[in-house]
Specification:
Layout (H helix, E strand, L loop, with lengths): L1 H23 L10 H5 L13 H19 L10 E6 L9 E6 L3 H21 L14 E5 L2 E5 L1
Helix pairs in contact: 3-4
Length: 153
């Protein structure tokens, strides 16, 4: 029994490191949209069995910053113009959280977000991560506060 606990416990540290990484990886100024959004082009570096964990984390950080930048690239003055999307991928399935996006950028935002979520899923599988399998609560709507989109639960 003790060996099973230690085996299970060994997955907790990478899971918590990954979770904290995903939640805190946005460190740059995101007040202006990146050039990639103008043309809907973005880095397409992929996580694979041949990439190191350091490279994988850099890929996820770069994509996370891009998703956050895309989310906050527009001033929020009409909540009807905003949608909600799942971000990240929990090891048990489903989004790790939610993010608002402006519907006029939906096509490009969705492409970037889809790629990011796929890379999160690859990272989870590659590193055999596990999670608590709790379903994250879904926001009800987006509210504009001081020009910024805010999720309301």
């Amino acid at each position: 029994m003790k060996n099973n606990w230690l085996s299970w416990k060994s997955y907790l540290v990478p899971f918590f490191v990954y979770t904290i990484f995903c939640l805190t990886s946005c460190t740059q100024d995101i007040s202006t949209p990146p050039n990639e959004l103008d043309t809907c082009e973005f880095p397409k570096d992929s996580i694979s069995t041949s990439t190191t964990n350091n490279i994988d984390q850099q890929i996820l950080e770069r994509l996370n910053r891009l998703v956050i930048s895309a989310s906050k690239s527009e001033i929020c003055d009409n909540s009807a113009e905003w949608g909600i999307a799942g971000i990240g991928h929990k090891p048990c399935g489903g989004p790790a959280g939610y993010i608002p996006y402006n519907k006029k950028n939906e096509k490009c935002f969705s492409a970037i977000l889809k790629f990011y979520n796929e890379q999160c899923q690859r990272y989870n599988i590659k590193n055999q991560l596990i999670s608590n399998c709790m379903v994250e609560p879904s926001p009800k709507y987006v509210q504009c506060k001081n020009g910024k989109p805010t999720l309301v639960y």
